[in-house]
Write a structure and sequence with these properties.
The structure is a single chain. The chain is of the alpha/beta class. 29% of the residues lie in helices and 20% in strands. The strands form nine sheets. The chain has a five-stranded mixed sheet with strand order 11-15-14-13-12. A hairpin with a 2-residue loop joins strand 18 (457-467) and strand 19 (470-479). The longest helix has 23 residues, at 241-263. The protein is globular. The chain starts with a helix and ends with a helix.
């Protein structure tokens, strides 16, 4: 059924038929008179959904190929159940890696996130729902300037949005407006997805009339009362029926495309994917790993599928066993490391070889692990077997897709310094490593892109050439160690001078290279300077800035091995953001990041907000939370329950 036929069918529909297609839960109702069947939306859209492996683990792989395989596997699973979508894929950014919801996002970097989102969503046999475009902390009132909005938060959606089958609107507030109810914001984010893609509200959002009038959104999870409010609003003239028609058109497109899809043969073979080794990041190793003797494991047996086979003992019992290396599998750290765990690790460090393994979720302060012989971060690790293999013979291949700081207070959203100033939300285009690398390096425990393995690498024969809008980076990477490994080569770009702030040490390209011991490989990476464009709000467009660029090549944002300069005579001088005279704090690299109120006002073009409004309606309803917890405890694997409980308790239900 083409678009003209769909619009013809809508023109013949009665209001109640349109309302049946504009909202009402996770199943699109059938319209018998038009011979339009129903379609089930994937249950991963429910607020307590937990995906395996989590997205932060996929970010640690730095691999578009692996993300594509996972996306394909999940879409095949959805296709077997005849669901409309393969699931949800976040296109927002990590703002605080130490918060539990960080595991729902790929990275703190927009370029890496865009590449992984695109590969994940474009490789499946069925469409994906794009969600959380504005990033972690979506339920908190945030204020951003135009450059930050487009260059950071919307960048992955801009680059990958054409692969979306649907867009689920964010919750929370942006610049004082509710994202799911603001026509302006909805128009912006929906402009980057296909015209036929569904637009859906947050799950359970019953502000139906606002969502429909704003953008034509399907009321995901809404009940009959919401439909009645829409009906009354249309009859009373509060909503133009053409807006309702637009919502129905997008919904019908999804229904028709889904049914047409299942009439055709497609590849239903689910690929075999095991990303544990590719996502695990070795943070520290003083030479103890790989272990030559079998270690003793301590941890929570309910969090691993094969705990009994490895004799996993409670961490509190670590003092009872002497001799050999002790490996602590830390899974309980959402609210900080328990004192008993910290004491057990400290006692082990003082008496023998100690390995700390952080299993699942995001980052955590690592003071308790000081003195450990090795520290391993495994964001997705359902078995002790996988840990055992990595500690004895298989080198971890993951790298950090975020900056791991010394404490939670290091991140702007938790910073006392920012809180005392009045509001933490005015970093502009500085987020994650771009903030820490340029201003606050001393607060970083492990930099963006960091990760060790059992091999050692060096870079030689480095050269850069410029042709129009592309920079070609050629080099040779060699494994100079005694073990096989995987090098993650990373290129960062800096624009010299005062043309714009924020284009300093920005990730532009990366490539994984598997190498045997003593093996070398010639590598070429191509950087498109359009990917480093700045947003010119006066002309509402991205502009590539001409000038002198420096390309840094290395193995993390801190570990730079080679550098080269080149001049790119592209574009003209732009007035994007502020200049050094009007915003000196944004150009003061190497010093603490402390923008003043006048600078913020010039940046935002609005008065500085000292105390943002609170939004009590974003607090989850206690009765709904109680019901969802009961359901989750009956259906969720024990090792996933902590993440599920956190998700339920922090998801708005209005």
């Amino acid at each position: 059924m083409d678009i003209d036929r769909i619009r013809g069918a809508i023109a013949q529909m009665k209001l109640n038929e349109k309302l049946a297609l504009s909202g009402g839960g996770t199943v699109v109702s059938a319209v018998d008179r038009k011979n339009i069947g129903s379609v089930a939306l994937t249950d991963e859209l429910l607020p307590y959904a937990v995906k395996e492996p989590n997205f932060i683990a996929l970010g640690c792989t730095f691999s578009e190929t692996l993300c594509a395989k996972i996306g394909k596997a999940r879409s095949v699973d959805a296709a077997r159940s005849k669901k409309a979508f393969g699931g949800v894929v976040p296109c927002g950014l990590i703002l605080d890696p130490m918060r539990q919801e960080a595991c729902e996002f790929f990275s703190e970097d927009p370029v890496l996130t865009a590449k992984l989102v695109k590969s994940y969503a474009s490789a499946g046999v069925i469409g994906y729902v794009f969600t959380d475009a504005l990033g972690q902390g979506r339920y908190v009132d945030r204020t951003v300037d135009s450059r930050a909005l487009y260059e950071l938060y919307l960048y992955p959606l801009i680059k990958a949005g054409k692969h979306a089958a649907a867009l689920q609107l964010d919750g929370g507030y942006l610049n004082g407006k509710r994202v799911g109810a603001s026509r302006t914001i909805c128009d912006i984010v929906s402009s980057y997805i296909p015209e036929y893609a569904m637009i859906m509200t947050q799950y359970g959002d019953v502000t139906a009339e606002v969502g429909i009038s704003g953008n034509g959104a399907y009321q995901l999870g809404a009940d009959n009362a919401a439909k009645k409010r829409i009906s009354h609003a249309v009859v009373n003239g509060e909503i133009f029926e053409n807006k309702l028609n637009r919502a129905v058109e997008r919904t019908l497109n999804t229904v028709v495309r889904t049914h047409e899809f299942y009439k055709k043969p497609f590849d239903r073979d689910e690929p075999t994917v095991n990303i544990v080794y590719d996502s695990s990041v070795m943070l520290e190793n003083n030479g103890t790993l790989p272990l030559a003797v079998k270690p003793v494991y301590f941890g929570d047996a309910t969090k691993f599928d094969d705990a009994a086979a490895y004799g996993l003992s409670p961490i509190n019992d670590a003092h009872k066993k002497r001799g050999g290396a002790k490996v602590f599998l830390i899974t309980d750290y959402a609210d900080g490391i328990p004192e008993a765990t910290s004491a057990a690790v400290a006692e082990s460090v003082s008496t023998g070889k100690t390995v700390v393994v952080i299993c699942g979720g995001g980052a955590t302060p690592l003071d308790f692990a000081k003195g450990a012989d090795a520290v391993l971060y495994c964001p997705y690790c359902p078995t002790v077997y996988a840990v055992d293999k990595m500690l004895t013979e298989v080198s971890p291949r993951g790298r950090l897709p975020f900056t791991w700081c010394r404490s939670a207070e290091s991140y702007p959203r938790n910073s006392k310094r920012f809180a005392e100033r009045g509001d933490f939300r005015y970093e502009s285009v500085f987020n994650g490593y771009s903030l820490f690398n340029n201003f606050n390096r001393s607060e970083v425990e492990y930099p963006f892109g960091h990760g060790l393995d059992y091999a050692k690498y060096e870079i030689t024969k480095f050269s850069c050439t410029y042709d129009r809008l592309t920079v070609t980076v050629d080099f040779v990477v060699k494994n100079v160690g005694a073990y096989a490994g995987t090098a993650l080569c990373q290129a960062y770009v800096t624009l010299d001078g005062d043309a714009v702030y924020g284009l300093s040490g920005r990730l532009a390209a990366f490539k994984r290279v598997a190498l045997e011991a003593t093996e070398n490989a010639a590598v070429r990476m191509v950087i498109d300077l359009n990917d480093l464009s700045v947003y010119d709000e006066r002309n509402n467009e991205f502009v590539a800035v001409g000038g002198k660029y420096r390309v840094d090549l290395g193995f993390s944002s801190f570990d730079i091995r080679e550098s080269a300069e080149l001049k790119a005579p592209i574009g003209s001088r732009v007035n994007a953001g502020l200049n050094r005279a009007t915003a000196p704090s944004y150009f003061a690299y190497g010093k603490p990041f402390q923008p003043t109120a006048p600078e913020i006002e010039k940046l935002l073009r609005v008065p500085f907000i000292k105390k943002p409004d609170e939004h009590p309606e974003l607090i989850p309803d206690a009765n709904v939370v109680k019901k969802l917890l009961k359901k989750a405890e009956k259906t969720t694997p024990p090792r996933l329950l902590p993440s599920v409980r956190y998700k339920i308790k922090t998801t708005p239900t209005d």
